[in-house]
Specification:
The complex is a heterodimer of chains A (461) and B (1124).
Chain A lengths: L23 H13 L5 H27 L14 H12 L1 H12 L6 H24 L4 H7 L16 H34 L3 H10 L7 H34 L11 H27 L8 H32 L2 H12 L3 H13 L7 H4 L2 H28 L14 H24 L5 H6 L2 H8 L1
Helix pairs in contact in A: 1-7, 2-16, 3-5, 3-10, 3-15, 4-5, 4-9, 4-10, 5-7, 5-16, 7-8, 7-9, 9-10, 10-11, 10-15, 11-12, 12-13, 13-15
Chain B lengths: L2 H4 L1 H8 L5 H10 L4 H10 L2 H10 L13 H19 L24 E9 L2 E10 L2 E7 L12 H11 L7 E3 L2 E3 L1 H16 L6 E5 L5 H13 L4 E4 L6 H11 L4 E4 L6 E5 L10 H10 L12 E6 L4 H5 L2 E4 L2 H14 L15 H12 L5 E5 L5 H13 L7 E4 L9 H13 L5 E5 L3 H4 L8 H4 L4 E6 L4 H4 L3 E4 L8 E4 L5 E4 L12 H6 L9 H14 L44 H10 L29 H13 L9 E2 L21 E6 L13 H4 L8 E2 L4 E3 L1 H6 L7 E2 L5 E11 L2 E9 L7 E5 L38 E18 L15 E3 H6 L6 H6 L28 E6 L8 H9 L7 H5 L8 E8 L4 E9 L9 H4 L5 E3 L5 E3 L9 H5 L6 E2 L10 H6 L12 E2 L5 H13 L12 H5 L5 E5 L6 H6 L4 E2 L11 E4 L1 E3 L3 H7 L1
Parallel strand pairs in B: 6-7, 6-14, 9-10, 9-12, 10-11, 14-15, 15-16, 20-26, 22-25, 28-39, 29-38
Antiparallel strand pairs in B: 1-2, 2-3, 4-5, 4-16, 8-13, 13-19, 17-18, 20-27, 21-27, 23-24, 24-25, 24-27, 29-36, 30-31, 32-33, 34-35, 37-38
Helix pairs in contact in B: 3-4, 7-28, 9-22, 10-15, 13-14, 13-15, 21-22, 21-23
The chains are: A mainly alpha (461), B alpha/beta (1124).
């Protein structure tokens, strides 16, 4: 660990995970004030109002959808799934970074994760909430899907079809959502206690007090806490891999050319991490700027995330390459046509845009200069988010729109309600996110304190 | 029972807009007797009636429309009872109706009954068996006893059911747009008739379509006796007018030509779409297909040559097809006739592109003398028909494969001449009363003989009998709703003369009048019921020892001067005209008997359903029915055919003097030619308001809801129309250029469609579109370019001298585009997909598997039934053993002619909704069965089209089943892939994973839950699916279960052929076979073991239950060698 007084001047040295000059108190002050301050910055109101408005578009769309049927979307018979499942997979993918950061990096003792894990986990939860809307609402009769998809012993003796990947999705996503929520909440408990202790407002005291579950910070508490975190991290780790593996089975299990591929599970997981880190960057960069958190979320964090993006981006690129290779190597006419159609068919623009976004763009991250430019990283992270959305579009729409029998081929185009549904979930996501950054500690206070040099010295003592 | 069934008039009246109270009161005070109940009923549900009640209980008036406390509830109940009482206060209709007080014999609730009837078609009739569920006709099947049906039906017959229940059908008698009673009509008519009576009906004109109804003829005769100077005109926009004229040209008289394809080895079609058009297509398609069926060891096929001016189903199924311009047809026909040595033909063609082709064809035809057929299409000129007949003569086919009979139409006339006479008479002010019986002449008449408003205004009284308040009704004073053929008594003759009684299955839903009841208004007994008229007529005929001769109606017009007469004389009821002239065979005494004994009435229990009228007779003129007749009548009605009524074969001799040299072919490549065709799905426009037919994909283009102008790829390039047919991203929508067609000074606009196989320089447009008063379904509104008048209305440029084709067309691109909804977009498939397995007869003889070549290198020909790609069974788990039934289907691609009857049959049987053009363009059609069309060969010169009906494959290893998360699609123990609608949550995963894409999803609420008449139409055995549910072909599981129950009652297995799926039942060529694969003797099992059998997408190892038999064509080796 670097010395406190070492000046941060040379660009080639490893940047700090926390800028020098902070004490336990200053960290606590800085972060808890964000949640407890009386005056909410006007920018927050603007952002929240905007997100809330967009979220209401989602609510209107859902009401109209439930009243009319999914025919309001552009889905049709060869293209039975489109924006609904694209968005589902996209959001679930985004949701991966949080747990990865919290669980896997915790287990790997990557201390730099501390500054970002809280809101990355929050992001995961909100993304999973957005994602979970789609599998439910994309069904023709959501009111039945709601309970028939869950296995419960009923008098008719009818169980769900356990061979169906959609069934696995139900388990995978719901498990993931609950473990992530639990993990997040457990991690918040010491900070809730801090907020409780520092809150001046009576209502805040009560609410934070209830959420803190009586945390007093005793050694016994801390011991329990450590065990719980470790256990949850252990539980969550396989989930990071399993959720998107199972989501990829939705496609890989099908017979459709372009879906039926063994490479899907690793390729989807890598893609999910890729998308997740892109989204974390997208959120982090403005957040640290507007909330003055540059001290806590340093260049080192950004750089590390960029490296992970580069690595996963290369895995994803390998996946694209393999899809083409399989098509050629199989000598299967349908597979061959699938890849040719992707590259030259009516949706070729989506394929090439995807290649540009997901394969070409991240190559800039080889450059240190790019990795150190927040603006460049922000742009790249946005481009990758778009690219990952396009990837699902290509996989789902272009595979479905031309499969085996040319007589059944058709085109797909989204309707206004596809867009309002999609953009609406972005509204929902940001609404939740704005509430989170207003009322909860966006960075783990106690964990930040553990990575202060003072804490390090205490350990050494 | 719903009031709609028992008292349709009442129901309709209730639906009307309420009258003003004062007016009602006034009316009430005036009316007496029979009309009274109607007025009261009309009152009962009106606002005025509410008010009426208010005034009766003034102190509680305000409570009426507010909350319901106990008191007001009781009052409401009281009022309802009062209303119920009012409903009960009706006079019983004069005919005996059967109440459900006691169980009726034959009617077991829930069990369907079948009744024989017939559907009148243009120039013929199609015998039908109609299923009735508790008095509601719910499905139409063919009558195997009937010569024109042989058990099959076409899509028009299947869709007739929807027309019956069409909520847009006209419900009321209208006088200048206002509702009137039939009594009022009769009053008005009688005034006019009395006026006419003085001058023998000189100002009275009838205009009808062509008919084969003998009763109609007898009635016209009767009218003719009352009004000797009245005239009867006929106009049929798409009839076989030219065939009749051709026969007259060839033989000097109208004759009816009947071909026997069952004995023909070689067939030459001169633009004849005999496999899917006309009054005979079902029979001809069956006979033709029987000679192509390579099953049961048969290894010989007939061979079909087609010379066509536009692609038709027949042409694209032909072994050799030549696309020519209409103006070339005569030259080619003459050249061929000359080579065949036909009388009176001289060839002007000695060299040219087609000479070798023609010579090869001529040689081939010569080699099958007496076993060949030359058939000309209804759209060809009379001369071509005459040439075809002389070729048949020269080939020795007459008496072998071709025979001639007296005409079946009651008064064959030249329809154009007949129409022209009417127009001239109207212009001359001679027409005082014009009675239009059926048809829609304002819309369908040729542009130069347009029965338009200006013309009609010169007629003092115009009456239109029609099922819809259409373009013609709009311009007529009186509009009388016509009863559907399933609602009224009538009769009709098939192409060979066999007569059928058309019996109703239900009382008129919309207060319609049968055509005979309507015509009775012009006789001295206007109150005869249709039943009495038809039965009376046949009593006279059958009692007279068989049908004998059909009386010739009087006052038919439309004879050309030189032609032989068909009753030109108006008062010659009993004189026998020259039999050699053929067409009118002694109206004679039977007709008069019809008049005197005609209204023979009994209350005989005919096998009509309970809601149909079993008529009670008017008391007068009744003589006791002869027991013999009663028996014969009942048998005739029951069987659907009247024995001994076939038209007699006559011998005719061709005139050797066909008119001189052919006209010079329009020279210069730039002169475009136009071809008019009846639309393949809405015909001449009469089916425009039928959603099933509008949404039925046209056989070659798979377009729905629109008519398009066909143009060849080369001509499209020439006129810069290559940009048309842009596929949009909206599902299956195509944006087409809109073309302005200028034909001899008249203009019309059509969206353009580049059609492979269309001859260069020819534009084909369909009749039937562009209607402006068709109804909610048929009236074109949405998406119509604003600035284009007469959009898609081919009749606007169709003239009497160019009814079917003409030279002198100019086209221009309007620059507009128009969205077309197609169920299949046309793609170029570059890779090798073994979807259609096809070969020639030679190849079939070499290797009956017709396996693709690349397999041939790898493996030797496998034994029958084993030509699958993957091994039969490779699994860790033992295969499921089907101990009971094991259902399967086989579809023979050799015999499928793409007629689409199966699609509509499936739609009718399985309550499949119509989704509309917008949803089709979003690729959300709901048809459980589709017919894929695959073009073969180059775009400019396709070698033919292969049709492939695709129902659910019921795969053994169905990809849809494991992916459904809720077990909504499961495999049955009989091998069916079942759909459990109640369980379905609509994830659509099954559809995504279905390689055949046969699953259909209710994206929106497509079913019409509200329209009462459509509720009556539905098959009660099949669930009506709601929104959000996946559905697909079930192999008509309701029919399977029905047969199984019947078999179990008798403690036996289901017999082969006992279960007929809807598509199979409709198929005219019997290309679809269903049955039990566990039954050693079943037909389907045999077909599954045919060497030609193959599985669609076999390499996916889905192991479909629906298998295909490879398509085999029989090209002429001589031409094949030349082409290659």
């Amino acid at each position: 660990m670097q010395r406190v007084d070492q000046p941060h001047e040379e660009i080639h040295t490893t940047p700090n995970v926390i800028e020098p000059g902070h004490t336990f108190g200053s960290v606590t002050d800085k972060i808890s004030t964000l949640a407890l301050r009386k005056r909410t910055p006007i920018g927050w109101f603007i952002g929240f109002a905007l997100s809330f408005a967009v979220m209401n578009v989602l609510l209107f769309t859902i009401v109209y959808l439930l009243l009319t049927g999914i025919g309001i979307w552009g889905n049709n018979v060869p293209v039975g799934w489109a924006f609904d499942i694209i968005n589902f997979v996209w959001w679930i993918g985004i949701g991966h970074a949080g747990t990865l950061i919290s669980a896997i990096l915790l287990l790997l003792r990557q201390e730099w994760r501390t500054s970002i894990n809280r809101f990355a986990e929050a992001m995961t939860l909100f993304a999973v909430a957005c994602a979970a809307l789609f599998p439910l609402l994309h069904t023709g009769r959501p009111w039945l899907a709601l309970y028939w998809l869950f296995p419960y012993p009923n008098t008719m003796g009818i169980w769900p079809q356990f061979r169906s990947p959609l069934m696995w999705d139900v388990f995978a996503v719901s498990t993931y959502a609950s473990v992530s929520a639990l993990f997040w909440f457990v991690g918040l408990i010491p900070d809730f206690a801090t907020l409780r202790d520092r809150a001046k407002n009576k209502a805040a005291k009560i609410i934070y007090g209830m959420l803190a579950l009586g945390w007093r910070g005793s050694a016994r508490h801390w011991a329990r806490y450590e065990v719980a975190t470790l256990l949850l991290a252990g539980l969550a780790t396989p989930l990071v891999l399993s959720v998107h593996t199972i989501v990829s089975f939705d496609f890989a299990v099908a017979v459709l050319p372009g879906w039926h591929a063994t490479i899907f599970p690793p390729y989807f997981v890598a893609g999910a991490i890729y998308a997740g880190f892109a989204m974390v960057l997208t959120l982090t960069i403005p957040l640290r700027k507007f909330y003055g958190l540059e001290d806590f979320i340093t260049h080192r964090h950004l750089r590390n995330m960029a490296k992970i993006m580069l690595a996963t981006g290369l895995i994803v690129a390998y996946g694209y390459m393999m899809e083409a290779f399989f098509a050629w190597y199989s000598q299967n006419t349908y597979e061959e046509y699938m890849i040719i159609n992707r590259m030259t068919g009516p949706y070729a623009w989506a394929y090439w845009a995807l290649i540009f976004c997901n394969v070409v763009t991240p190559q800039f991250l080889w450059s240190k200069r790019v990795r150190h430019s927040t603006a460049a990283l922000f742009v790249i992270s946005l481009v990758v988010s778009v690219g990952m959305w396009l990837e699902r579009f290509v996989i789902i729409v272009t595979s479905l729109h031309r499969d085996f029998l040319p007589s059944s081929w058709a085109m797909y185009s989204p309707t206004i309600f596809d867009w309002t549904m999609f953009i609406g979930t972005i509204g929902l996501f940001f609404t939740l996110f704005f509430l989170f950054i207003r009322f909860l500690p966006i960075i783990s206070i106690f964990e930040m304190r553990t990575i202060l040099p003072q804490a390090e010295m205490a350990k050494e003592d | 029972m719903h009031i709609k069934d028992t008292f349709p008039e009442l129901y309709q009246l209730r639906r009307q807009k309420p009258l003003q109270l004062e007016a009602v009161r006034e009316k009430l005070s005036k009316t007496q007797g029979k009309e009274f109940w109607r007025s009261l009923e009309e009152l009962a549900e009106s606002e005025e009636f509410d008010e009426f009640l208010h005034r009766e209980f003034p102190q509680h008036a305000s409570e009426w429309n507010e909350g319901t406390d106990r008191r007001s509830f009781l009052k409401l109940m009281g009022a309802s009872l009062a209303l119920a009482g009012l409903s009960g206060c009706v006079y019983q209709p004069p005919e005996t109706i059967v109440p459900y007080v006691r169980d009726q014999e034959n009617i077991i609730p829930g069990k369907p009954l079948f009744f024989a009837t017939a559907m009148p078609t243009t120039g013929g009739a199609m015998g039908l068996l109609v299923r009735s569920n508790m008095g509601r006709p719910t499905k139409i099947e063919g009558n195997p006893e009937h010569p024109a049906s042989l058990g099959a039906t076409d899509h028009f017959a299947q869709a007739a059911l929807l027309t019956l229940y069409d909520p847009d059908r006209s419900p009321t008698i209208l006088y200048r747009g206002e509702i009137r009673s039939y009594i009022a009509f009769l009053g008005d008519l009688n005034r006019a008739l009395e006026e006419q009576g003085g001058k023998g009906g000189a100002g009275l004109r009838f205009l009808s379509e062509a008919t084969t109804s003998p009763t109609f003829a007898a009635q016209m005769q009767e009218i003719g006796r009352r009004f000797p100077n009245a005239r009867w005109h006929q106009y049929e926009p798409a009839g076989a007018n030219s065939a009749a004229a051709g026969a007259r040209l060839a033989f000097g008289q109208f004759v009816n030509t009947i071909y026997d394809f069952s004995r023909a080895d070689r067939v030459l079609s001169l633009d004849a779409d005999f496999l899917s058009c006309g009054a005979t297509n079902l029979r001809y398609a069956r006979e033709f297909a029987n000679r192509r069926r390579l099953t049961d060891g048969n290894a010989e096929m007939n061979r079909l040559y087609a010379i066509e001016t536009t692609p038709t189903n027949t042409g694209v199924c032909a072994d050799h097809r030549l696309a020519v311009r209409p103006s070339e047809m005569e030259v080619l026909a003459r050249a061929l006739a000359a080579r065949l040595g036909a009388a009176g033909a001289a060839s002007a063609l000695t060299n040219g592109a087609h000479v070798q082709w023609l010579e090869a064809v001529a040689r081939d035809l010569q080699s099958a003398r007496g076993r060949s057929i030359v058939i000309a299409g209804d759209e060809q000129a009379p001369l071509i028909h005459a040439l075809a007949q002389s070729m048949n003569g020269a080939l020795g086919n007459v008496g072998q494969t071709v025979r001639y009979t007296e005409p079946v139409e009651v008064a064959p006339v030249d329809h154009i001449a007949s129409l022209r006479e009417l127009i001239v008479a109207i212009q001359a002010g001679q027409v005082e009363a014009l009675v239009i019986i059926g048809g829609n002449p304002v819309y369908t008449t040729p542009a130069d003989l347009k029965l338009d408003q200006a013309l009609l205004d010169k007629v003092k009284l115009r009456v239109h009998l029609s099922m819809y308040h259409d373009e013609t009704s709009e311009l007529c004073h009186w509009h009388i709703p016509q009863a559907h053929f399933l609602e009224s008594w009538s009769d009709a003759r098939a192409f060979d003369g066999t007569a059928s009684i058309i019996q109703p299955l239900i009382r008129p839903l919309y207060n319609g009048k049968g055509v005979h009841e309507f015509l009775a208004a012009f006789t001295e007994r206007p109150d005869q019921s249709g039943y009495d008229i038809v039965r009376g007529f046949w009593q006279s005929r059958i009692a007279g020892g068989g049908i004998g001769n059909i009386p010739v109606p009087i006052a038919a017009t439309g004879q050309t001067p030189g032609g032989t007469a068909t009753g030109q004389g108006t008062q010659q009821p009993a004189t026998n005209q020259n039999r050699q002239d053929g067409t009118n065979q002694g109206p004679a005494t039977q007709g008069q008997q019809a008049r005197t004994n005609g209204t023979q009435g009994t209350t005989a229990a005919t096998p009509a359903p309970a809601t149909a009228t079993t008529a009670a007779a008017p008391a007068q003129t009744s003589a006791p029915p002869s027991a013999d007749f009663e028996k014969l009548w009942r048998k005739a009605v029951h069987d659907g055919v009247i024995p001994g009524t076939e038209a007699q074969t006559i011998s005719v001799s061709a005139r050797g003097d066909l008119p001189g040299v052919p006209p010079p072919v329009a020279s210069g490549g730039n002169a475009l030619e136009i071809v008019f065709r009846p639309d393949p799905t809405i015909y001449d426009g009469r089916f425009a308001n039928n959603g099933w037919l509008q949404e039925l994909p046209k056989p070659l283009t798979k377009l729905t809801w629109d008519g398009v102008a066909f143009i060849s790829p080369a001509t499209a390039r020439q006129f810069g129309l290559g940009n048309a047919n842009n596929i949009t991203s909206k599902g299956q929508e195509t944006l087409a250029d809109v073309l302005r067609l200028d034909f001899r000074g008249r203009q019309v606009a059509f969206p353009v469609w580049i059609m492979p196989g269309q001859p260069d320089g020819v534009v084909t447009i369909p009749l039937g579109y562009g209607r402006w008063r068709a109804g909610r379904v048929g009236t074109i509104t949405e998406g119509k370019p604003d600035n284009l008048s007469g959009f898609q209305n081919a009749y606007m440029i169709r003239t009497s001298d160019a009814l079917w084709s003409g030279v002198g067309l100019n086209i221009a691109n309007t620059g507009e585009t128009y969205p077309l909804a197609s169920t299949q977009l046309h793609f170029n498939i570059e890779d090798e997909r073994e979807i259609i397995r096809a070969g020639t007869l030679e190849e079939y003889k070499h290797d009956p598997r017709l396996a693709p070549h690349r397999d041939e290198d790898k493996q030797p020909p496998a034994p029958a039934g084993e030509n699958r790609h993957p091994a039969e069974h490779e699994s860790l788990y033992p295969e499921f053993v089907y101990n009971g039934y094991k259902w399967g289907m086989a579809i023979d691609l050799s015999t499928c002619v793409g007629c689409n009857a199966c699609i509509v049959a499936c739609q009718a049987e399985n309550n499949i909704p119509v989704v509309g053009k917008d949803q089709i363009s979003r690729a959300r059609e709901m048809h459980w069965l589709r017919v894929d069309a695959y073009f073969r060969g180059a775009m400019d010169n396709p070698q033919g089209v292969y049709f492939m009906p695709v129902p659910c494959m019921h795969c053994e290893i169905a990809p849809c089943e494991p992916v459904c998360p809720v077990h909504a699609t499961v495999h049955s123990a009989e091998g069916l892939n079942d759909m459990v609608y109640n369980r379905c949550v609509g994830t659509r995963y099954c559809s995504n994973n279905c390689p055949y894409k046969v699953r259909r999803f209710n994206f929106l609420l497509y079913q019409d839950w509200n329209t009462p008449s459509l509720k009556l139409m539905r098959n009660p055995e099949v669930s009506v699916r709601s929104r959000g549910v996946m559905e697909k072909c079930t192999y008509c599981v309701q029919r399977i279960e029905y047969a199984k129950i019947e078999a179990e009652k008798e403690n036996r297995r289901v017999r082969d052929g006992e279960i007929v799926t809807a598509c199979q039942g409709a198929c005219p060529t019997q290309a679809i076979v269903f049955g039990d694969l566990n039954d050693e003797t079943s037909r389907v099992r045999k077909l599954h073991h045919e060497p030609r059998r193959y599985d669609l997408l076999a390499d996916l190892n889905t192991r479909p239950r629906t298998v295909y038999l490879a398509a085999v064509r029989n090209p002429n080796p001589e031409l094949v060698n030349r082409e290659s």
